[in-house]
Amino acid sequence: MNAGRNGHGPIYCLEGISKSYPDVVALAPLSLEIRREERVAIVGPSGSGKTTLLHMLGGVIQPDQGRVVIDGRNMASMASGREKAGLVGMIHQQFDLVPRLSVLHNVLAGRLGYWSLWRSLISLISPQERHLATEALRKAGIEDKISQRTSRLSGGEQQRVAIARLLVQDSQVILADEPVASLDPTRSEDIVRLIREIAEESGKTLVASLHSVPLVRAHFTRVIGLRKGTLAFDLPVTQVTDDILTELYDLEGNRDGVLSPAS
User: Fold this and answer.
1) How far apart are CA 147 and CA 101, in angstroms?
2) Which residues contact 83 (CB under 8 A, 6 or more apart)?
3) What is the pTM of this model?
4) CA distance 133 to 167
């Protein structure tokens, strides 16, 4: 079933995965495939299972049942390090940067999965592979911030640092968990466009959870809707109508929620 790294077959095969916690079913059993170079948006109300699904795709958590297969390999049996770093990288809502460190050091953190412990320690004193960080920051549009302390940057600039860190990691899959939730609409559009362009130019698969319908429709090819941990729909973006989105939220009693056609 795998079409190979340069093909357009599945990069992910999710086989009957589920996840429960003591008081809640975070994700009911579901199966789906994500093809190479697809741009998939995951939508749904808060608590619908979006972050749980993304964390399973990233190997951060493992399903209670079923399995996540990435590039033909079971995610559960994959060790951290070079193999996983080359397959999947994640951008979080809170950026996961170290505020006291420079932009350069935060970007180079994307190489830690490839380096030995000794090389990682040396890089704190004498940054390794600086040219990769410089090029990534150039693509992210903030090359001039390379020596600044990260805490001095704006929220939009910090998100660009996180994107540059992902660029130097050079994974096949980009996962983004509500990457623009803390940004204003103009900066949100800029960041999502940048992530999309990076995915398109380098042939990467992009999977992101988002609340903004305009961003989903402008930058993604497929939409997965989740509700109460269940799969509500899985459609090409051109088939996701306002009525479908309204129903997704009406059933939560949230007609006026953040994911509305005008949001």
Assistant:
1) 9
2) none
3) 0.87
4) 8
Tell me if 92 sits within 8 A of 55, measured CB to CB.
no
pLDDT value, residue 9: 82
Summarize pLDDT for 14-51 with one digit per residue, the tens: 999 999 998 889 999 999 999 999 999 999 998 899 99
Return the closest-CA partner of residue 167 out of 133, 194, 191, 218: 133
Q: Which domain holds residue 213?
A: 1-71+206-263
Distance CA 5, CA 187 (A): 33
Asked if residue 67 is part of any domain, the answer here is yes
The one-letter code for the residue type at 27 is: L
Q: How far apart are CA 73 and CA 122, in angstroms?
A: 33
* Pairing verdict, β 10-21 and 65-70: antiparallel
Q: Which two tokens stand for residue 236?
A: 């090409």
Residue 42: exposure state from Cβ atoms within 10 A (0-12, 13-18, ≥19): buried
Determine, yes or no, domain membership for 255: yes
136 with 198: CB under 8 angstroms? no
Q: What is the per-residue pLDDT for 254?
A: 47
- Which residues on neighbouring strands pair with residue 236, listed in sequence order? 222
Three-class SS state of 107 = helix
| pLDDT value of residue 83 | 81
Number of domains present in the structure of the chain: 1
Is residue 263 assigned to a domain? yes
* H or E stretch covering 67: strand 65-70
Residue 210 belongs to domain with CATH number: 3.40.50.300
**Burial degree of 189 (CB within 10 A; 0-12, 13-18, 19+):** middle
In a domain, 195, yes or no: no
- What is the rounded distance in angstroms from the CA atom of residue 244 to the CA atom of residue 223? 11
